[in-house]
Design brief:
The protein is α+β, with helices and mostly antiparallel strands. The protein is about 40% helix and about 30% strand.
């Protein structure tokens, strides 16, 4: 049997170094356990710590040797409980102990003794070292050594516990800061109150890890209403209301102070739990939501999920979260206030528009179009009663209504059906569910929504004391396009629209009102002006009349202009031949009669020489006959000489025709003319083209009403689209005597002659031309077209 040797010396330096490099409790405890097990053979070691002095319990932090141990042992249980009471070194004989005294140990070998060394610092028990001896009990020397070791390691374990406590507090603080940052980020992610309220309740429940969170908001009459509930709280339901003295939330709302209830026997919880004993609330917190020094709601947190009651830390967290939620609610309320202001401004604008006129069409268009600036509808419509029949009179975004349009037909049918009810109607479809009280209504709108793609419909009758005028409707593909503020606006708008439509309808029934109304309206506006302004307007009118009748202005007849084709000449040979030489290039300027090219002429020169030789032979023969007084022969030879003389002339002409000349002055327009050398040409073939660009002809389309004012020789100015920086001055050469069809209008063409020495004007260009036809009064120059049109209309009506 192994025996323990005399007490070993405590390796202070080694132990201290090992503990210093390990700040955590578990690591230091393992160093201690390994050291004791190493120095005390045939034993097992467990190191315990007390982490919470307020709620003490033995927590096994390390073990060494053949042993298994429970992680947490009750503070006053068994042998460890004896240490907690005695707070001194103790040894127990396992043979005399009941197994329940050390049931926290799972020992697979026979243990002889259990020794315990408490770890005490400043009279505070922070832990203990448990040694299980298997072969023999620990001698006194070993126990003395353990006591010495405990004095060294106890401060280290206390420091490790303090370090971990401080670290946990720091981590908890960081976690709380992170949660608050995340909370503020989530709350500020939306300004929509309908989205924010359920988000507040859910985030409170998630962060605090509670059974339920109730969000109460202040309603009308100083009454709290439960608007959202995250989790399960059977004692209250969404929609419940409380007044002062009726519940915990109402009391918090009354005095503005938060509440922490950690006792399930509290009378307030007893009243709350009445009838819910199986699901009773055992702990509750409530804190106010204060927005700019005004209470707007109360948040309740019900039952921690770990079964413990709420403490001051939970209370502090709840109040801080309420501050963050209050800021988010304040921002959302600002948005709601701004939207209400927009709704009010839009309502005032529509009201001013429909009450400032008695024009029925204008009133109708204002009612269906103006509210779209604040209400997100896709179509608004008004149908009016007339002769016992309902008829659509205005649709938003449409100046005119086509009664045959399938969409209008469907809407007409729906409004006729909706008009049978004297109450407003609000129908929406979410998914496949249509929100309607009656199944027939739901079926009708399900089919209508499927056909039109709409998902929201709101209609309300337009009626006054004299009866119903019609019906007003709004539609959208968003089923939730109308908020409470929008519905209130539409309700007020319907009342104003009813009055305006009634007045406009009665006004339209006045005889000749369509003719007199514009005149009367202008007269009223004129008389409403201050006297000085009226005098200024009268003076301006007189000045305008004088200007129109007495001041002459140049009268110009305008029309579209097109450059006519330029004059050109085609150079064609009169005799066949091959091009021997070309004298010009493309674009060269040439004079009339200039040689452009020469054909090969050897055959023509040969013919000329042959004819010349025969002519000279005939003349010589005639001379010899005359010398010999042979009159007959001389006569014959004279005839031969005349014949060959004519052949010489014809051969010379044919030789001249081998020179290709231009009949007009101009520019060579044939591309790559030099490449024609060696080409064989026949009479009628085109060798080249010469165009005359020295002047251009421009045809101007003159309307029938102006043709009598355009005469030959009158000056004109022309602007061409291709030459916007040039103004060409021309003169009228001729005016066509016959009208031609130009599109849907008949016009006369006046031809203008334009000098074109620089060659800027080219055939086919288009532009505008103005022909000066003299001077005329300013009124005639400016107003002659409407005057002619009015005169023709009057003549067609009266016919004098």
């Amino acid at each position: 049997m192994a025996t323990h040797s005399s007490a070993p010396a405590v390796p202070v330096t080694k132990v201290a170094a090992a503990l210093l490099v390990r700040p955590e409790t578990a690591a230091r405890a393992q160093v201690i356990a390994d050291l004791v097990c190493e120095l005390l053979p045939d034993s097992a070691v467990v190191v315990y710590v007390i982490a919470d002095q307020n709620d003490p319990a033995w927590t096994a932090k390390a073990k060494a040797g053949e042993i298994q141990v429970a992680n947490v042992v009750d503070f006053d249980a068994g042998t460890l409980g004896a240490i907690a009471v005695g707070r001194a070194l103790q040894t127990f004989d396992c043979g005399t102990l009941d197994r329940g005294e050390f049931s926290h140990l799972d020992i697979r070998r026979k243990a002889v003794s259990l020794s315990y060394v408490p770890l005490i610092v400043d009279d505070v028990l922070v832990g203990a070292i448990e040694v299980i001896a298997y072969e023999r009990a620990l001698p006194a020397a070993a126990l003395q050594w353990l006591s010495g070791l405990a004095e060294i390691v106890a401060p280290a374990m206390a420091a490790a516990l303090a370090y971990e406590s401080e670290r946990d507090i720091s981590l908890q603080s960081i976690s709380r800061v992170t949660q608050m940052y995340d909370l503020e980020k989530v709350f500020n992610s939306t300004l929509e109150l309908d989205e924010l309220l359920p988000m507040i309740a859910k985030k409170f429940a998630d962060v605090m890890n509670v059974q339920a969170v109730n969000l109460w908001m202040l309603g009308s009459g100083e009454e709290l209403q439960l608007v959202h509930q995250a989790g399960y709280d059977p004692t209250v339901t969404v929609g419940s209301a409380q007044r002062a003295g009726e519940g915990i939330a109402a009391d918090v709302s009354e005095n503005g102070e938060s509440v922490l209830i950690d006792d399930g026997d509290d009378s307030r919880l007893q009243r709350r739990n009445a009838g819910h004993e199986d699901t009773a609330i055992f702990s509750l917190m409530a804190a106010p939501l204060v927005e700019v020094d005004s209470l707007v709601g109360v948040v309740e947190a019900v039952n921690r999920n770990d079964g413990l009651p709420f403490d001051e830390d939970d209370h502090f967290l709840l109040t801080n979260m309420c501050e963050t939620a209050s800021n988010a609610l304040h921002n959302a309320d600002l948005l709601q206030a701004e939207r209400k202001l927009e709704v009010l401004e839009a309502l005032v604008k529509v009201s001013n528009e429909i009450t400032s006129t008695l024009d029925l069409d204008r009133v109708l268009q204002a009612i269906v179009n103006e509210p779209n600036s604040v209400i997100g509808y896709e179509r608004a419509a008004i149908a009016l009663e007339g002769r016992g029949k309902l008829q659509i009179k205005a649709v938003s975004g449409a100046a005119k209504i086509n009664p045959q349009d399938p969409d209008i037909v469907r809407l007409q049918s729906l409004l006729e059906w909706a008009s049978l009810s004297n109450s407003p109607m609000l129908i929406s479809q979410h998914g496949e569910q249509v929100d309607a009280e009656r199944e027939e209504t739901a079926a009708k709108f399900r089919a209508y929504f499927e056909q039109t793609g709409m998902r929201g419909f709101h209609s309300l009758p337009l009626a006054d004391d004299d009866g119903r005028i019609g019906i007003l409707s709004f539609e959208s593909s968003d089923p939730d396009f109308l908020s409470t503020a929008h519905l209130e606006m539409i309700k007020v708008l319907a009342g104003q629209a009813t009055v305006a439509l009634r007045n406009a309808t009665l006004y339209r029934e006045v005889p000749f009102i369509d003719l007199l109304e514009p005149i009367l309206s202008r007269k009223r506006k004129f008389l409403a002006m201050e006297k000085r302004r009226r005098m200024l307007m009268v003076g301006a009118a007189v000045a305008a009349v004088v200007f129109l009748t007495a001041v002459p202005l140049p009268l110009r007849v305008a029309g579209s202009a097109t450059v006519a084709p330029v004059r050109s000449a085609r150079i064609q040979p009169e005799v066949p031949g091959m091009v021997q030489r070309v004298e010009v290039q493309e674009g060269d300027a040439v004079l009339q009669g200039a040689v452009l090219a020469q054909l090969d002429d050897w055959q023509y020169r040969s013919a000329l020489a042959e004819a010349q030789a025969k002519y000279e032979s005939a003349v010589a023969a005639m001379d010899r006959a005359l010398a010999s007084n042979d009159g007959t022969e001389a006569g014959i030879q004279r005839v031969q000489a005349d014949y060959w003389n004519s052949e010489v002339s014809r051969a010379r002409q044919r030789l001249q025709k081998t020179l290709l000349r231009t009949p007009i002055a101009g520019r060579v327009a044939t591309a790559r003319i030099q490449d024609l050398v060696g080409e064989s040409l026949h009479p009628g073939d085109t060798f080249a083209e010469v165009v005359d660009t020295s002047h251009a002809d421009i045809d101007v389309a003159v309307e029938e009403a102006d043709v009598e004012r355009v005469r030959n020789g009158e000056n004109a100015a022309v602007k061409l689209e291709g030459l916007p920086n040039h103004t060409f001055h021309a003169r009228v050469v001729v005016v066509s005597p016959k009208a031609e069809l130009n599109g849907n209008q008949r016009v006369f063409y006046a031809r203008l002659a334009v000098p074109n020495q620089e060659g800027l004007v080219r055939s086919g260009m288009q532009g505008e031309a103005k022909v000066s036809t003299g001077w005329a009064p300013a009124g005639w120059v400016l107003l002659r077209r409407p005057a002619i049109w009015l005169w023709s209309k009057l003549w067609s009506w009266v016919g004098w």
